[in-house]
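Lab manual, section 2.4: Encoding a predicted structure.

Procedure: take the sequence of the chain (111 residues), apply the prediction step described in section 2.3, and record the output as structure tokens. A sample record is shown.
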Amino acid sequence: MQRNIFFYSFTLDPKHDTPAVLKDYAAIHRVGPGWSFLTGTPEEMEMLRRRLGFTDPDPEKDKDRETHIGNVRYGNEVRQLWGACPGMSRAEFIVESLSWVDWPKGHKKIG
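Recorded output:
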């Protein structure tokens, strides 16, 4: 992380997940440099969720926050190659999902 690979996590509950709460969460989980936790107004977070495509096509299902799953969205910005997989997947599946990305020079291929 930190050179060409970055992680961003964003909240679905910005009223609760203040910057202080997210900072504590990152400390508890010993998150290092290169991983940012994002919050904002409910409207901003909803716009981000929709623009990243983390929505259910069924509006009734999409309203139920209990059915939302964490997704890992990954890609190569330079080549405009993007994909996603469920964040609660087995680690081996996530690594396999990442293996197709043409990573920048100097990074080892995952998998």
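Check your result against the sample. DSSP finds four helices and four strands in the chain.
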